Amino acid sequence: MKISTRGRYAIREMVDLAQHGDNNYTPLKEIAERQDISEKYLESITKVLVREGLLIGKRGKNGGYKLSRDPYAYTVWDVLSILEADDLAPVACLEPDSEKCPRADKCPTVSMWKEWGHLTEEYFSSITIGQLADLPQPFFEGAYI
């Protein structure tokens, strides 16, 4: 399992809005500049987040984006499961649309891979966007949430 750029940038965008949004609409250009992300690339990610109800968008003067709810109501898993839906399985045979492996019934490792997937989901579900927004910047390795 490898978290893509889309997943990582989506989390950064959500954290940025939690830190700087103050429940106001923030122009995508400002988020892109603060996060050093291409505005065009961020726009494609933002469309998904709006479509899935994690963000609210407003056009025109004073437009932009804001979180649709309190930052502590979102988990990292909420974001990743939307943007990485097909890539979060730890092995190919556990991907959502994969064909059933002919060895699944006798495979000695399948339960281990399932547990790893469960632990990953549990871990990312335990961290909220609000918690990440509250971390001292920069966040140093070895500190725990």
From TrEMBL:
GO molecular function (one): DNA-binding transcription factor activity
Keywords from the named record: DNA-binding
InterPro entries: Tscrpt_reg_Rrf2, WH-like_DNA-bd_sf, WH_DNA-bd_sf
Superkingdom of this protein's organism: Bacteria
A GO cellular component entry from the record: cytosol
Cytoplasm among keywords: no
Any one Pfam family match given in the protein's UniProt record, by short name: Rrf2
Protein name as it appears in the record: Rrf2 family transcriptional regulator
